[in-house]
Amino acid sequence: MRTSIVIALQVVVLLAISQAGHAVATYLGLPLPGNLLGMLLLLGLLLSGAIRVRWLETSASLLLRHLAFFFVPITVGLMGFAALLATDGPAILVTLVVSACIGLCVAGLTSQVLAARRRGRA
User: How far apart are the C-alpha atoms of 41 and 19, rounded to whole Å?
Assistant: First the structure.
């Protein structure tokens, strides 16, 4: 029972941060999605120490464990775009693969640079 309450409170905090990101995006008229601003806000709060990782750890791990279920509505929604996917599917697929490869390369190179810096300090 206690774990359920903790998870519920942590999810409420995560949702509040997400909604704050949406509010900032709307208020300032930024061309960025509110959920992206919410993630940046969460990152800033974590880096500043205003929020500690252990305060959100239980709900975050639960959400990550069940992440695949969040894609079911998106997949079902794509069925309505069968004609679009039939005509432009290959171009969309190439774009997705190339952008994923670029993201992986940037993440890998960044981690290598950070690891090299850490080895230099140690």
Answer: 11
